[in-house]
Amino acid sequence: MRHLALLCLAALLLTGCGEKKHPATRIPAPPPAPEQARDREPIRVPKHAKVIFTETGMASWYGPPYHNRRAANGEIFDMNELTAAHRTLPLNSIVRVTNLKTERSALVRITDRGPFVGDRIIDLSLAAAKAVDVWRAGVARVRIEVLETPSPIDRGGRWCVQIGSIKDEDDATDLKARLAKRYKTAKVLTFPSPVGGWWVRVRVEGDDRQRAEKIIAENRLHEGTAFLVRLD
Fold first, then answer.
1. Class of 53-148 per CATH?
2. Which of 147, 160, 210, 150 is nearest to 189 (CA)?
C-alpha cells in the first residue's frame, strides 16, 4: 500500500514538471481616484446691501475652451467657480444674476471680459449657469443687480475698443494697419480667440472712454463688431 502511494506521488511530480506553465494574469492597476472638489468660499455681501446698478438682457455661459486660461483680472479661470464675464463692469464686482423665467438666482464675481455677442450682456461660468438655469438652455433672459464694486461704475476706468471675431488672420492684420494709421496715438494689436478667429484691440491714448467711444462711432466695419470694453 505504501509502495503504491509512493508510485502515485512520483507520477504526480513527473506530470507537474512536464506541464507547461501558464503566465500569470496581469491585473491592470485601478484608475486614479477623481480629484476631490476644493472647499469653495461662498460669495458674501452685507445682508442689506443696496443695488448700485441694474441691467436686464440675455445671459450665456462659457466653459471648457477657456477653462484654466488666464482671465482679465489675472486669475486662472475655473469654470466650476461662481464667476462671470461682463464688458464694462469693474473687475471683481459682485453681482446677483436672476433668471427671469425660473427666478433662480446666484451671486457671482466679475473676473473676465465678454460676452462679445451683441445681444448678450453677461457670460456665466459653468457653475453659475447651472445655478441660475442657463446651462441647459444655453441662453436666458436675466436681471443683473450690482451689489459691490471696487471702483465707481459711472466714472474713471481704463477703456479700449475690441473688434471681432474676424475669421481670417490677414483681414485682422489689414484692419490693424488701417486703424494704426488713422489713430496714430493709439496702440493697436491682434490676438487669436480660443474658439477660433482673431480679435483687434485698440488702446486709445490714456485709455480714455470718450476716445474709445469715438472710434466706435467713426468706424463702420465689415470685418467684425466693435465693443467698448473696460480693462480694469
1. mainly beta
2. 160
Closest residue by Cα to residue 99 from 145, 66, 68 = 145
Q: Quick one: which of 157, 126, 151 has its CA closest to 228?
A: 157
List the chain pLDDT tens, one digit each, 232 residues: 444 443 443 443 334 444 444 444 333 343 343 333 455 678 888 888 899 999 999 999 999 999 999 999 999 999 999 999 999 999 999 999 999 999 999 999 999 999 999 889 999 999 999 999 999 999 999 999 999 999 999 999 999 999 999 999 999 999 999 999 999 999 999 999 988 999 999 999 999 999 999 999 998 888 889 999 999 9
- 135 residue type, one letter: W
Chain centroid, CA 150 distance in Å: 21
The cell numbers describing 22, all together, are 501558464
Among 111, 66, 60, smallest CA distance to 84 is for: 111
Under CATH, which architecture does the 159-230 domain have?
A: 2-Layer Sandwich (3.30)
- Asked whether the beta carbons of 153 and 197 are under 8 A apart, the reply is no
The amino acid present at 171, given as its one-letter code, is D
Residue 135: name the closest of 192, 212, 80 by CA: 80
Written as one letter, the residue type at 201 is: R
What is the side-by-side strand order in the sheet with 159-166?
A: 187-192, 198-203, 159-166, 225-230
All CATH 2.40.40.10 domain ranges of the chain, comma separated, are 53-148
